[in-house]
Design a protein that fits this description.
The protein is of the alpha/beta class and 201 residues long. Helix content is 26%, strand content 36%. Strand 1, helix 1 and strand 2 form a beta-alpha-beta unit.
Length: 201
C-alpha cells in the first residue's frame, strides 16, 4: 500500500511540482488545506517559497502551524521544503525584522553571508553521518537551491552545503525532516531523497 502524504496548501509553495515528484516516488498524494487530512496522513509535507514572514502568516491563516507542531510532538513524520523548512525553526530574521517560526527545530534563519544572493542553482550537499534521507547518494551529489536565507546550525543529524559560508542544507531530527533545497526540482537525486523519506513512513 502506498504511503498517504498530504502537501499542505496554505497559499505558498510549489505545490504541483511537489505533488508530482512525490507521486513519482511512490506516494498517494493529496494537496489540501484540510487539517484533518493533514493530521491523519502518514506524512505531511510543508512547502514554501518567498518570504519567511509571509509563509508564517499563511500558515497562521489556515491554523497549519498547530498541525505541524502536534505531528512533531507525537513523532509523526513532517517534511519541510525550502521556506517550508525555514518556518520549522524558532525564528527568521529578514531585513532586520524577526518573525517567530514554529519552533519544532532549534535555531534561527538569517541572511547568508555571501557575495552573491540569492544562492540559486545546483550545489553539492555533504551528507551527515548515517543520513537516511541521503542514503544511496554520493557525497557531493548536487541539488537545486533558490534562497538567500538559511539556518547555520541546529540539533539533529545535519547535512551541509556552502554558499559564502556553511549552512544547514538538510536536517533529520526525530520525525521532523527538512531540506533547504528543492528535491522536486533536483532530478534523480531529489527522487532518491523523496523515496528514502517515503520508505520511513
Amino acid at each position: 500500500m502506498k504511503p498517504r502524504v498530504v502537501v499542505l496548501d496554505y497559499g505558498s509553495g510549489n505545490l504541483r511540482s511537489a505533488e508530482r515528484a512525490l507521486a513519482r516516488a511512490g506516494a498517494d498524494v493529496t494537496v489540501t488545506a484540510d487539517l484533518a487530512a493533514a493530521a491523519a496522513a502518514d506524512g505531511l509535507v510543508v512547502p514554501g517559497v518567498g518570504a519567511f514572514a509571509a509563509c508564517m502568516a499563511g500558515l497562521s491563516d489556515v491554523d497549519g502551524g498547530r498541525v505541524v507542531r502536534e505531528r512533531a510532538a507525537a513523532g509523526r513524520p513532517v517534511l519541510g521544503i525550502c521556506v517550508g523548512m525555514q518556518v520549522l525553526f524558532d525564528s527568521g530574521d529578514e531585513r532586520g525584522v524577526v518573525t517567530d517560526g514554529l519552533g519544532v527545530l532549534a535555531g534561527k534563519v538569517r541572511r547568508l553571508q555571501a557575495p552573491i544572493l540569492p544562492h540559486m542553482g545546483w550545489n553539492t550537499v555533504n551528507p551527515g553521518p548515517g543520513s537516511t534521507l541521503l542514503a544511496g547518494l554520493d557525497a557531493g551529489t548536487r541539488f537545486y537551491f533558490v534562497h538567500s536565507y538559511a539556518a547555520t546550525c541546529t540539533e539533529g543529524l545535519v547535512s551541509t552545503s556552502e554558499h559564502g559560508e556553511p549552512f544547514v542544507a538538510a536536517v533529520e531530527h526525530g520525525a521532523v525532516t527538512a531540506t533547504q533545497f528543492h528535491p522536486e526540482k533536483s532530478g534523480d537525486a531529489g527522487a532518491t531523497l523523496l523515496a528514502n523519506w517515503l520508505a520511513t513512513l
